[in-house]
Write a structure and sequence with these properties.
heterodimer; A: alpha+beta; four-stranded mixed β-sheet; 10 strands; elongated; B: mainly alpha; Fumarate Reductase Cytochrome B subunit; 72% helix; 3% strand
């Protein structure tokens, strides 16, 4: 199989949250216990945000416009971007891109620096303070490898989630958007086709991305690009130049055994340390 | 008081010496833990500290020592700090004269330098580089220690700054360490930073103007 993708059609989601349960079950994740992960936020949403033990949630979004108030349900999790900022900044190579497009995480290599968590344009990865490892949706890469669909997709009863070759998912998404637009949802659109080089989680949205809390034009942070392209080589160059110069001076001075000559040359004039 | 060739020149107070030593130790710990956490190929170094999580903890403890050591020294010896502040904010032409000949000295080439004060031009520049470098590292390190409480844009810029400042500061420290420990005649620097004072020969040779000031202040008259 070439590149794969998960399709999330928010217009079909009924917020049963079976996907959340299936994810927890497949990954054997415990419940979140800290108050910031379980506090009541004034809606039916189960968790205020993703957490180190919660790779996906259904966000309950209330949007009021000229047509009244709409209640949207959006499944949130890792987008598995092609131009993944998390991979760019992961110094330990704990995050990498699989051939099928999945952003794979190697827990053994992760040191929990949190660079991925802060640089992700969607703020998806979370660092577990107990294990000091960053976690996020894996797109069930082990299930996919075995020819199965991700756990969340396999449990979705409304057909809001689908999984398969990326091209096929895009085709389904575009057809669905055309249908929605015919039905009067003029702002319906596909999200993830071109964003960040093309993501491997694709949304069918009924409205503008901002309504769902998604950035309209997500970008790899400029600071991350400058850091990796220029900052690292510059730092390495400064260190190597200093080390080389110092070693050169050390051997040069040792060879000359300069100390007695200095007095001879300078004749009492001062020179500092 | 009579002049003697065996006279000592008080150079560093107790607070400055203790801070320098704590800085030296904490710098090495920060350098090793930082490198092992940052570079993938140095990951095995983490084993020395008991794994990556322990290395992170040690890095943070060393960072606190690194930052609060000088703060404590300033509180304990404000006069000494004021002297350094005065020195680095008052540049004379002799200082630039020294800097212009710095590489001659570094590589051991013959050179003439105008008589220097308490801090020579190179030491003044070094104080700026290390001072601002340490402050920059401390600030960016603090921000990336507590990302959840600070604005994301600030955290994002502190990552590259921290990882750029660290090797740049290390580059400066390498030069500083070489001049203080391995350069011909540098044993006297260790005497000063360990025992607190310099010999007359070294003081007059490296800081002639300051040596003269000290002699006058202590009433050491050559007969």
């Amino acid at each position: 199989m070439g590149e794969v993708a998960k399709l999330i059609d928010v217009t079909k989601c009924t917020a049963c949250r079976g996907c959340q349960v299936a994810c927890k079950q497949w990954h054997d994740l415990p419940t979140e216990t800290t108050p910031d992960k379980t506090k009541f936020a004034g809606s039916y949403q189960s968790h205020p945000d993703l957490g180190p033990n919660t790779y996906t949630i259904i966000e309950f979004i209330e949007n009021t416009n000229e047509n009244g108030t709409q209640w949207h349900f959006k499944k949130t999790g890792c987008m598995h971007c092609t131009d993944a900022a998390c991979i760019l900044v992961c110094e330990k190579k704990a995050l990498s891109k699989l051939e099928n497009g999945i952003v794979y995480r190697d827990m053994a290599k992760c040191v929990g620096c949190g660079y991925c968590a802060q640089n992700c344009p969607f703020l998806v990865p979370k660092v577990n303070p107990k294990t000091e490892k960053a976690t996020k949706c894996t797109l069930c890469e082990n299930r996919v490898e075995a020819g199965l669909k991700p756990a969340c997709v396999s449990t979705c009863i409304t057909g809001a989630l689908d999984f398969g070759p990326r091209e096929k998912m895009l085709e389904i998404a575009k057809n669905r958007v055309a249908t929605l637009q015919q039905q009067g949802m003029t702002k319906a659109q596909v999200y993830g086709e071109k964003e960040l080089g093309g993501t491997h989680v694709i949304y069918v949205l009924g409205d503008a991305p901002e309504v769902y809390g998604l950035p309209a034009d997500p970008q790899v942070p400029l600071s991350a690009t400058l850091w990796q392209k220029y900052g690292k080589p510059l730092g390495a160059a400064a260190f190597c130049a200093s080390l080389g110069t110092t070693l050169f001076a050390f051997f040069l001075n040792r060879k000359k055994d300069l100390a007695p000559k200095l007095h001879h040359h300078e004749g009492g004039k001062s020179h500092g340390v | 008081m009579a002049y003697s060739d065996n006279d000592r020149f008080p150079r560093f107070g107790k607070a400055a010496r203790v801070v320098h030593l704590t800085h030296l130790v904490s710098f090495f710990v920060l350098f090793l833990t930082g490198m092992s956490l940052y570079f993938n190929f140095l990951s095995p170094l983490n084993l020395i500290f008991g794994g990556a999580n322990a290395a992170k903890l040690i890095h943070r403890i060393a960072a606190l020592v690194f930052f609060f050591g000088p703060v404590l020294a300033i509180i304990l010896n404000p006069k000494g700090f004021a002297l350094v502040l005065y020195q680095i904010t008052h540049w004379r032409k002799e200082d630039f004269h020294f800097i212009a000949r710095f590489f001659h000295k570094f590589f051991g080439q013959p050179h003439d330098v105008a008589p220097q004060g308490y801090l020579n031009g190179g030491q003044k520049l070094n104080t700026y580089l290390l001072g601002f470098g340490c402050l920059g590292l401390a600030f960016t390190g603090f921000v990336i220690w507590f990302p959840e409480y600070l604005p994301n844009w600030l955290v994002l810029w502190c990552y590259p700054l921290h990882s750029l400042l660290a090797p740049c500061l290390t580059a400066v420290v390498l030069g500083h360490a070489y001049l203080g420990s391995f350069h011909p005649g540098s044993g006297a620097s260790w005497e000063a930073i360990w025992g607190g004072s310099l010999s007359r020969a070294f003081a007059e040779h490296h800081h002639a103007q300051w040596a003269q000031e000290v002699d006058i202040k202590l009433g050491r008259v050559k007969r």
